[in-house]
Amino acid sequence: MARAVTAQRKTLNTILAWAVALLIAFPIIWTVLTSFKPEPQAVASPPIWFGFDWTVKNYVDVQNQRNYFDYFLNSVIIALGSTALGILIAIPAAWSMAFVPGRKVRDLLMWMLSTKMMPAVAVLTPIYLIFIWLGLLDTRIGLVVVIMLINLPIIVWMLYTYFREIPGEILEAARMDGASLWNEIRYVLTPMAVPGIASTVLLNIILAWNEAFWTIVLTTTDAAPLTKFISGFSSPQGLFYAKLSAASTMAIAPILIMGWFSQRQLVRGLTFGAVK
Amino acid sequence: MGEITLRNVSKSFGTTTVIPDIDLEIANGEFVVFVGPSGCGKSTLLRLIAGLEDVSGGTIAIDGRDVTREAPAKRGLAMVFQSYALYPHMSVRNNIAFPLKMAGEDKAVIDKKVNDAARVLNLTDYLDRRPGQLSGGQRQRVAIGRAIVRQPAAFLFDEPLSNLDAALRGTMRLEISELHQRLAKTMIYVTHDQVEAMTMADKIVVLNAGKVEQVGSPLDLYRFPRNLFVAGFIGSPRMNLVSGEPAARRGAAMMGARPEHIRISRENGEWPGTVGVAEHLGADTFLHVHTDAAGTVTVRADGEVALNHGDRVFLSPDPAKIHLFGADGLATPRSAPAMQGAAH
Questions:
Q1: Which of the four pLDDT bands, split at 50, 70 and 90, describes residue A276?
Q2: Which has the higher per-residue pLDDT, B92 or A243?
Q3: Average per-residue pLDDT in chain B?
């Protein structure tokens, strides 16, 4: 029997959905609003929701104190670089796990995932020391590698799941047709896995963009991305909520815009394989 | 050339032995069918020949060259898969061209060969479509096209028609047979459908539990099945296998009589019985007769025969065409039942 959905129930569901969405989006909305308030009104209690004196002074101040675009460029390089490197390593790894699995593939995948459950701070000291020895502190290449390693388990897992959906016979056909391993991956597997690879790339860019522990700890100025940009406004001159909010808004805007335009691809990718 | 020789080939997956030990000779240009029930190892055997699985023991040679350790592409074979295994993101043209592209052929040569193959397979109008826009039969033809452009030493078919409906299966069966006549290349064809095996093969290899039960021409297997398994597997409807008194009287543990080799009469005969079900197919009538002496016996009678459920009849197996089997399941030489029949 089909479940009847009455008009009343539909309205109720809509209201509930909007309420939940607003609740989730509230911190972001609040940040954006605060970024347009004069500093005294930003800390007013009770808060002034809309009736404040709208200003863009915070943005101008923030930009005058630190050049936003230096940080933005670093964020872009770290997010894209770590994603590209991760995908290059993960495609062959996921291919071998999906199509020529050994007996311990499940264990290996679980072990990879378990590294995500470890608190990052637990390996702070060794990684920090390694960075000092290798001269990687405050370098883009160092951050690209670390962020790639942190997200690699997720990339491998996602690609493994997508690859498992591709019928093995098609790859065998490619082998019979004379395709080398490289050509099999290049001409057959990768084009067929494009939706999955695309959503993996998108998700990984978001994760790398938002990563705030290692990027803050391992950089000072040269390689500092937008996370460092935000944190730079949180302490030195006391708490300036409006400026901090302006910095945060500037930092999250690019990724929000990217997420907005790619949401269809993201959702399709993340539910790939759930329904045939 | 396309001569394939298997020597002591075995295959195990972990502790499970799928193929214990197989020797097989396939001559150049032969159409060989591997037939057997599900799980008998026929697809595995084909995949071993293709190189998609590694043998656990033994050697495989193609035209005298040992290819046991060679990669699939190096063996000069082409394969058509049950699921067609077309590349869904490529047009029909690119699907057929793929093996040529991998072989590094010139663009002009590729175009010519693809167009030739498309013409042979009636695919010219579909070259720019994607596989998803084709019917099952067309997809199968694309898969065959992809196989023939490489001009392989031999073709391997892994149950290529089992995803098609009955009518299309009949047509494609003819097309593949015709292709074999035209190309005169070795073809190895795996199927569980003994009608396909009988109609297409020069040589049938009957497999059961990873072992070769018998190798021979379709009519050889039909006339002289080596054992009970082959006797029961080849022929449709199945051979009637009768134990007990009728077999004992002929000095065997089991006797077999094909439905078309049993005479049916209203007046007299060896086994009295009652018609259970009469299947009138037009050209033939299949009668399922319940007898006391031989259990339920299937008889193929003339299409015009006017017998129906409940009719009393007498059945007599044709003495010249009876098959006798010992307690070990092996057939006793065919001359014996004929002589015994004559002695009666």
A1: very low
A2: B92
A3: 90
Q: Is B291 in contact with B315 (CB distance < 8 Å)?
A: yes
Separation of alpha carbons B82 and B78, rounded Å: 14
Residue A56: phi, psi to the nearest 5? -110, 15
pTM (two decimals): 0.77
pLDDT at A2 over 70: no
**Taking a C-beta distance cutoff of 8 angstroms, is the pair B155, B147 a contact?**
yes
- Look at the block and give the residue holding tokens 């290819």: B67
What are the Cα distances from residue A53, in Å, to A40, A62, B50, B223, B235?
11, 18, 77, 101, 93
B102: which chain A residues are within 8 Å (Cβ-Cβ)? 177-180, 183
Query: Looking at beta carbons, which residues of chain B come within 8 Å of A193?
Result: none
Kindly provide the ipTM of the predicted complex, given to two decimals.
0.82
Query: What are the φ and ψ backbone dihedral angles of A92, each rounded to 5 degrees?
Result: -65, -35
Asked if A170 and B86 come within 8 Å (Cβ–Cβ), the reply is yes
pLDDT in tens, B279-308: 999 999 999 999 998 999 999 999 888 888
Contact B87 A174 (CB under 8 A): yes
Interface residue A100 vs chain B (CB under 8 A):
no
What distance in Å separates the CA atoms of residue A96 and residue A184, rounded to the nearest whole number? 12
